[in-house]
Amino acid sequence: MRECYRLQKNTALAPVASGNSLNLLLALQYVANEELSFQVMFSKMKIALAKIVDEIS
């Protein structure tokens, strides 16, 4: 999960946060009975980051 966030934070969150002069503190928690594949986790992280960007922009 950390890798999915790390790969996407600069393209998704950084432009919006710096454009609005925001400092973001973000905590994400993954809870599931089974482990998800990297591709699924990557796409879900993309959706979550898009929702955050929509809220702050």
Protein model, in words:
The chain is mainly alpha-helical and 57 residues long. It has one domain (2-56). The protein is built from three helices and no strands. It has helices spanning 2-12, 14-19, 38-56. The radius of gyration is 12 Å and the shape is elongated. The N and C termini lie far apart (24 Å).
Reconstruct the topology from this structure.
Blueprint: H1 2-12, H2 14-19, H3 38-56
Helix pairs in contact: 1-3
* Secondary structure tally: strands: 0
Specify the structural class: mainly alpha
Percent helix: 55-70%
Radius of gyration: 12 Å
DSSP helical segment count: 3
Which descriptor suits the 3D outline? elongated
Total domains: 1
User: Which spans have pLDDT < 50 for at least 5 consecutive residues?
Assistant: none
Distance between the termini: 24 Å
Strand content: under 5%
Mean model confidence by pLDDT: 89
Largest sheet: none
Oligomer: single chain
Helix-strand pattern, N to C? HHH
